Amino acid sequence: MSFQDEQLAKEKVFRDPIHGQIIVDNQILLDLINTPEFQRLRRIKQLGTSSLTFHGAEHSRFGHCLGVYEITRRMCNRFQRNYPTKKSGDGLWDDRERPVALCAALLHDLGHGPYSHTFEHIFHTNHEAITREIITNPSTNVNQILSRVSPTFPEEVASVIDHTYRNPQVVQMISSQVDADRMDYLQRDSYYTGTNYGKFDLDRVLLMMRPIRSGIAFDISGMHAVEDYIISRLQMYLQIYFHPVSRSMEVILDHLLKRANYIYQHPSEFEPEFTPYMLMPFFNNHFNLDDYLALDDGVLTTYFNHWTHSQDEILNDLARRFLNRRPLKSALYDEKSKPLLPKLRKLIQTAGFNSDYYTAVNDSFKLPYDTYNPQNSNPQTQIELIQPNGNLIELSQVSTLVASVSGKEAGDQRFFFPKEMLNEHQDIEIFEPIYEEFQSYIQNNHIINSKEHK
């Protein structure tokens, strides 16, 4: 049975705060949404620890995946209406690509774990590889539904996600510098964080998109809408995704899981009865797909609650700091002040905090726009504009605004430490000289050489 044979008699509509209506008109898509693997995404926050900074950011990867599907559906509709292929190889849109594009859009984040980026760092998982496994593993509901289209269809969908699919138009719909994924999460994250940074003219950007032989380009008359998108993305990273409090809570989460792993690996030294069963496959570095799919944000939070009663003071304290939102403080540093970090760690250790668990460095940088460089390990696709004569020109060649930020990293480097180190009055007077010395290295949220500023 083909994808087209499973059209719904009556379309299904999901109400959405970003797109208004998300329309599903095919049984395959509806069945994919109703699988346990996809429904699990309701229990995975889109922004992880950011909800501890922006209280509205409780939205899930479920809603984001529906949004990416909806934007891709609109792309397919516009391409089919305005740029349908006339003959093979003409670089226009072949609507036979619609099923794989829609399914890949819907399923692109299927492999994300709880607090995904922190979880990946600790347990060395890869959400894209796990997404591919969910799609291609015959034991999953997702695979069985995709296989109704054809035996090779799951592999085709997976190849879009890992960027090896034969048609670059479909790949760039889902993954490029202007793709459905980014266009949805910018608007969705902006809405739920209560900010305006990620807002741009989505309808105009979609209207200006055109399929070309090498992928997707934009009519040059839509250049300013694309510029607005680029700057919106930059602002979202600097103001939302790189927010120091969110990064601080990620540090605590990272160290909490690291401490739990350490205790599990040393039962005779700590707690022999420490058996967090659902995490043990990851502590043992030997997990299967079922182990992974059993995890969500709620499972981890339940363990964190248990750990607030741990006999281990560090695990107990880190769990309480995370659950009760007690972030670490941070100060900016640069190459000049970086040599001071060991000294600051030593002061923190002397004040009674284990510096392995109560300090961290975190570098967050992002390229607002990256021109294509084939020498890069992961070269970006260029944003191409179509001129009136049909020739292509790269965006930064005609946009002074984009050229001004192209290839220039934006972000900062931070040293994280316990807030207690900045308190003016401490209960234990013996530590007061330590706190005073530590504070002499912090000025205006920057690490400085105190001797140079006397």
TrEMBL record:
GO biological process: dGTP catabolic process
Ranges for domain HD/PDEase: 57-195
CDD domains documented for this protein: HDc
GO molecular function: dGTPase activity
Alphabetical list of InterPro entries matching this protein: dGTPase-like, HD/PDEase_dom, HD_assoc_2, HD_domain
Name of this protein: HD domain-containing protein
UniProt source species: Limosilactobacillus fastidiosus
